Known about the structure:
mainly alpha, 3-stranded mixed β-sheet, globular
Amino acid sequence: MNTPAVNPKKEQSWQKVVAKYSNPQRSCSIGQLLNTLIPYALLWVVMVKCLAVSFWLMLPFSVLAAGFMVRIFIIFHDCGHGAFFKSQKANNFWGFVAGVLTFTPYQHWRHSHAIHHSHAGDLDERGWGDVWTMTVEEYLLASRWVRIKYRLARNPFCLFIVGPTVLFLIAHRLPFQKAGEREMQGVHATNLGILSLAVVMSSLIGLKAFLLIELPSVIVMATAGVWLFYVQHQFEGVYWERHTKWDYVTQAMQGSSFLKLPKILQWFTGSIGFHHIHHLCPRIPNYFLERCYIENSMFQQIKPITFLKSFKSLAFRLWDEQHRELVGFDYLKKLKMG
């Protein structure tokens, strides 16, 4: 897990730029907790009342609640980076709470996500907190069964609906076999927290009502979250490199997208679309990412991806090392014809 050295002059330059944005402000963090958790709680009241009339009347509010769950996950994400509060105890506490609300074990996820940041875009260090991506050569050399599994994994329905649902509802309930004791305890504590929440809510509104409200929100939240993560690292012009040539700064600026979302979606996603800035300095709280972008031209040089153009990423399936680009399965037919 050795990370290639960054050019000292380059490192000093970008570190000076991001330093002033890397200190979380308690008032901003508390404000974000209030403007996220309170509306989310009120939405539950509305959904319970709507469900008493009709499931279909409740469903649109459940989708809106999923938007707040995405925002809660961003708070969870910042806590995992130690970027939401200056106090690590506060980060751990609110990270755990947000993890229960988003069905994600805090310590376990924090560990795997740190590895993702250390190796994103590194072709020799794939498999930790990323989307399964094979190179063209690997796919051509793979067995038929592996190809079938890969095609299923990259199918949009599996990738953005089935996969995220299984990940958040089932996979996150189980620690990795090689997980440390702290991570394993965190998974069990999160499961206990989710169970306690389910018991309390079921005693108040009934188990059926709880599931009819919670499950649609979790599924939509999971789908949106995986989609965001996907387009942040699977886009036209993305940077991928072998370990010996991999560079941290280049990966952050060219291997992480700038997803320019409409303001309302930017709010719900905690400005995580400024992902190139986030990967360069994960210690920047989400509420300072846009300001960092606006005040520094070095970040404005990155070509943005709009919400509509982000759907172009659906066509990407494999990494072509020879031409250094993501390609679709149709590219394989061109190889055979050639």
